[in-house]
Design a protein that fits this description.
Order of helices and strands: HEEEEEEEE
Keywords: Signal
Oligomer: single chain
Number of strands: 8
Strand order of the largest sheet: 1-2-3-4-5-6-7-8
Shape: globular
CATH class: Mainly Beta
Radius of gyration: 17 Å
Structural class: mainly beta
CATH architecture: Beta Barrel
Number of helices: 1
Helix content: 10-25%
Protein name: sn-glycerol-3-phosphate transporter
Strand content: over 45%
CATH topology: Porin
Length: 177
Amino acid sequence: MRVIKQLISILIFTATNLSAAFAAPSEDFDYQIHVSLWTTHFNPKPEHNNDQNLIGFEFYGDRLPPSRYQRYRGISDYARPLAGVAWFRNSFGQKSLYAYGGVRQNFVRYGEVQTYGKLTAGLIHGYRGEYKDKIPFNQLGIAPAVLPMLGAQYQNSFAELTLFGVSGVMLTVGLNF
């Protein structure tokens, strides 16, 4: 599986370079695909898996209209709603799924690099057997989750750090379409 993950990463970076050569930088995109590169647990245990093999897909809506409470439009941007799904191996090596909705808020732009934050909320399925109680509220095999992310986008490629609860952090990379 590690070979497949490395091949996907190589394909993403190759496609990024080709798209950067032929297209102008785009902030308005509708789809996003991403894969995990690195994961660590804050309190590692022998049974923890740090190869999540995550593959995710997101769909973005139009920017939310400005409100009178949004003072700093020059620094920030209007948030964009999103919906997505991610397939991965959880911390215990079990195949899992995260279906979610959320919002992306742009922060400061440094030259051609746009920084942003995302907040997603959804349902996780896949913690079974002896690991069923490792996430809260998983009595029916599906548990609620809220995941904050910080990212940086350069043209059509991006990298994000995802904090998964108090358990750990994951680095993902991907492409915008």
